[in-house]
Amino acid sequence: MNDLPAQITLDQWAERYRQLCDGGLREPWYGGPLARHVADGDYRLLRLRYDNSAAALRLWNFLLTEESRLFKARQEGKKIIGTMKDLGTVPIMVYSLPNAIAFYPDGAWWVPCIMENTTRDLSIANSLGIDESFCPVRAMLGAFVACEHFPQPDLLICSVGATCDDFSAIAQRLASVGYPPFWWEIPHRRRPDPDEPAVTLPGGFAAPVSQVAFVKGELQRIRRELSTICSRELTDDMLAAGIRVANRVRGMLRELRQLVFTAPRCPLPALELLIAEMLAIHYCSDRDQTLAVYQDLLNEVRRRVADNQGLFPADPARIFWVNPVADLRAMNLLEECGGRLCGTEFLFCHALDEIPEDVPPMDALAQMALADPMVGSAGDRAMRICNDARRLNAEAVLISRIPGASHCALEGQVIREMIESELRLPVLELEVPPLSDAVGPAIRTRIEALVEAVRQRRAR
Amino acid sequence: MSVCIAYISPFVPAEWIEAHGLRARRVQAEGGVSAAAGACPLATAFAQCASDRDAVVFTTTCDQMRRMAERCCIDPSRVFLMNVPATWETAGAFALYTEELRRLGRFMVRLGGIAPAAEQLATVMREHDIARRSGAVVVDRGTPVAMVGAPLRREDRWLFDCVNHAGGCVALDATEGGQRCWPAQFDERGMAADPLAELARKYFLTIPDAFRRPDTLLQEYLQREVALRKIRGVILVRYLWCDQWHAQLVRLKESLKIPVIEIDLGGQDYDLPRIRTRIESLMGILR
Questions:
Q1: Structural domain boundaries of chain B?
Q2: Which residues contact B120 (CB under 8 A, 6 or more apart)?
Q3: What Å distances lie between residue B3 and A49, B11, B55, CA to CA?
Q4: Which of A143, A228, A340, B170 could cross-link to A108 by cystine, CB 3.0-4.6 Å?
Q5: Which CATH number fits the domain B4-119, given the four candidates 3.40.190.10, 3.40.50.11890, 3.40.50.2300, 3.40.50.300?
Q6: Does pTM top 0.90 for this prediction?
């Protein structure tokens, strides 16, 4: 069997799957051929290109079976907690309880892409006044009303305050149609005044001690609510254990990212890395399996790096990617245009940083929540992107705008200006809609131009 | 002449600024057709108008205004970004707002203001209360409608004339800057006990707005005022890209059960004849 890394189509995966099975592939219960998900309506899979490893197969199967795993958990009597917007903090609390699992209804923002607009989600959102001027996360509203894509949660927890307006507005609309969330406040993270007690947060941002205390108070409210819903007190010891597992997950992902970004030959495509990063936010509804999926990916990538195996022609342009894309196809496009990922900031770098274990767990979680790049200034976020791009030897930065997202217009400018002035790198800012086929040629041309600019700079 | 503090959000109490011996200037923004796609015209206009003021207070009441604080062309030491919590039902949120007022106070002291004694603050609060309540509400003849939504820029004031010319009258100005954004009357006992706490209570706990979570204060306010003033139609004004008010459109139609139209302000294709026609159509329906 040829185990050289390659990108293959879904059709090619059928033969590859047979080869892997013949070679003794052992899969978890959610395993199987990828093409079966198309029968469930995941038509976008037909247009993507995939890594050909068994580890990537497991990653995709894990991602695409989340819905059935959530329903299974419900049948097993677990409490289903819908966590919204905070991207990483509340799920750690939920998974610290033995009888609860968390998922992000926000994840429905990829439904229009994955299912190529064949569901009712967006038309329902339209009928409720949440039209295409909002971020694609509006699909979440339709998903709730249609009772599709995930079971109705036992509790919804939504962070507001320093969040996107579109998300806050959609969550309020959700409340008005019968799904009131437990609101909690995440304040705008400000820089401490010169004489003010301050804390250095995971990731390096600073925040006033008073803000950490406030967020801790908010998380205490969530803790009480979770304890009530789950009929079990959520103790500090349980939270500390939950944080230790979270750090294990994050440590594995950090190593994976480091290898992918820095290996001389790219050992994992951008699309699979994006999916892998997403798992860290809420463990794709199964913490143990997330660890197992990461372990497989790490083993595969370590092997490829050790054997100097990789994908793509020699010396692709090293691109740092900012913001997640609504259309997964865009990640393939980067590589088709001659680029590779050398760094990412998909809006949730706070969910990748190590959580402090030397402070009480609620303080640690409050620090983590405040480290969210979205709750601070765009300048802070841009600075972190600059530092990472510099450290990872980026040759260009691509900022993908999320259609309708209230933060993108101004934030993109700030990030662009800082990268251009601090790093003097070319920057491309483009908007990627949930289905980018219609604008695909334009996006391709622009990414090709970015790659060409990198090559010209190399030639100088 | 004392330092002038520019602001636009109704959650910045003018009383607190004036009690520090500074001038409070609620900016009525102008212009703001933005070069950046997706950028709020109002936030852009406010940043432009505020850039020649002594100091400016932005608030976190919307994402774009929060981020625009970074883009304002003014010495950063003279820009204050005030955290106004979206949640309002918890003691923690109220305490955060109150603490932000204190932090604003320290900012103003750095600019030359003087921290006010309690009685001094209470006096300014009484003056403002009287001024707010003494403004006689003149209701023109015509079909009563409500104007609801975002703050109007100077060039948007023609909307009121447009309603009048079409045979209506704005019997409820629930835009930001209208009656909706007045704090409830201050309580003498509250002022005697702790005027800053009373100021915070009335501003934070009584002003309804689309950004608040939950938004029940806004819904209850509009239902109450629409019934009281016999409002027959609503003109919802919002700036292009404003999600918070745009999301209210269908919600208001459902809850108020009277005709509601939405008008987009400040886009590059700010289409006055189209807006006029929409208002005339509404008034025609209501006659």
A1: 4-119, 139-286
A2: B19
A3: 61, 20, 8
A4: A143
A5: 3.40.50.11890
A6: yes
Give yes or no for B92 touching A (CB within 8 A): yes
Domain count, chain A: 1
- Inform me whether the pLDDT recorded for B32 exceeds 80: no
Contact B213 A190 (CB under 8 A): no
Please report residues of B whose CB lies closer than 8 A to that of A166: 243
Tell me: the pLDDT tens digits for A276-306? 999 999 999 999 999 999 999 999 999 999 9
Dihedral, CA atoms, A31, A33, A37, A40, nearest 10 degrees? -90
A43: in domain: no
CB B194 within 8 Å of CB B118: yes
Length of chain A: 460
Structural domain includes residue A253 = no
Given a cut of 70, the residues of chain A with pLDDT beneath it are: 1-2
Residue A12 falls within a domain, yes or no? no
In the block, tokens 């790096």 appear at A305
Q: Distance (Å, rounded) from C-alpha B285 to C-alpha A438?
A: 40
Q: Is B59 on the interface with A (CB under 8 A)?
A: no
On whether the CB atoms of residues B109 and A182 are closer than 8 A, the answer is no
Write the residue in A173, A180, A187 that is nearest to B251 by C-beta: A173
**What's the ipTM?**
0.94
CATH for B139-286 is 3.40.50.11900
